[in-house]
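Hi support team,

I submitted a single chain yesterday and got back a structure, but I'm not sure I'm reading the token output correctly. Could someone confirm the output below corresponds to the sequence I sent? I've pasted both exactly as they appear in my results page.

Thanks,
R.
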Amino acid sequence: MKKEEILEMARAEQSDEMEQHFNDKSMLWIIIALIVCCIVFSFIRLAQGQPVEDYLATINLANSVGCFYRCSKVKSYRYLIQGIAFGIGGVIFAAIFFCKFFGA
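Hi R., thanks for writing in. Yes, this is the structure output for that exact sequence:
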């Protein structure tokens, strides 16, 4: 394949790798901000004697979704196991929260 043909095929894809890289990085920062906010709010609620399981469920379920996505793209069992573990933790914390919230 000639250089011109390769360049023409790359232009035809209309995919910008730099844009995709920055989208991926922005998602990382979004997750970091989510986790930091949940931790800060959890400590405030914990200090006031309020339940924090909803924040713990949010963090675990967000991480679970991210791990499952990475697993689907990278095909690594490590991410599958992490996704399952975070998912189980998220469901447990959500169940505890709802039991406390609805008084069961």
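A quick pointer for reading it: The mean pLDDT is 85. Let us know if anything else looks off.

Best,
Support desk
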